[in-house]
Amino acid sequence: MQKRSQDALSGQVALVTGGARGIGAAIGLALAEAGATVYAADLLPCDEVVSRIVEAGGSAQGLALDVTDRPACAAAVEGIVAAQGRLDILVCNAGICPPGAVAGDWGQWDRVIDVNVNGTQNCIAAAWDHMVSRRYGRIVLVSSMAYYQGGVIVGTEYSASKGAVAAMTRHIARNGGQHGILCNAVAPGVIATEMTASFSKPDLAAIPVRRIGTAEDVAGPVRFLCGPDSSYMTGTILNVTGGIVLAA
Known about the structure:
- InterPro entries: NAD(P)-bd_dom_sf, SDR_fam.
- GO terms for molecular function: oxidoreductase activity, acting on the CH-OH group of donors, NAD or NADP as acceptor.
- Pfam families: adh_short_C2.
- By secondary structure, the chain is of the alpha/beta class.
- The chain has one domain (5-240): NAD(P)-binding Rossmann-like Domain (Rossmann fold, 3-Layer(aba) Sandwich), CATH 3.40.50.720.
- It contains 7 helices and 7 strands.
- It has helices at residues 22-33, 47-55, 70-84, 106-134, 146-149, 156-176, 215-226; strands at residues 13-17, 37-42, 59-64, 89-92, 137-142, 181-188, 237-240.
- It is globular.
């Protein structure tokens, strides 16, 4: 019998990057609700999400982390393993999504690729050997529907970065399965967060469910991918788009 959802991750330790607000904060709360000890990592202070988890009876700590800093990512994982003896779950959510165009500025291109692609790889590489040695790991990456159908408001660099994340998901899945490591991704659609607050609002008629998504709409599928009910899934990209993307 599978564990109930509220204790499905009991005893496990999770690192969530970009965990201070928005989708990352919602993911941290969802994993803690399922019993995981959560490390919320971000350049922004994580005090609020940590307090919410602790007040709800969960366990959490905040980490100051720049995912583009490779040694810092390695040190963060080493610190978690030293303190907890394990790292079971890695959610690579940290990313940036500035408005852009097909021919934007090269500084923005470099920055988006550095955070969204290199930052994701830095965290995976930091956790990989530990997960291999334990023969267990759940890695969830955050892509975007832009990887599949391109973006309109966002720049080429964002769509390219999220396409890279989708490809990385499949590569890690292909190479991790034999070590007990599953890697899946979510590809959110239009989600209301602080990061997208300045973007123009979409026509709800273009969204089959007729509403903009919430951070919690993304957190639920991530929790599922981290838990026992998805133990035979790897290399899967779940579209969380309210029906905008119907196949991938």
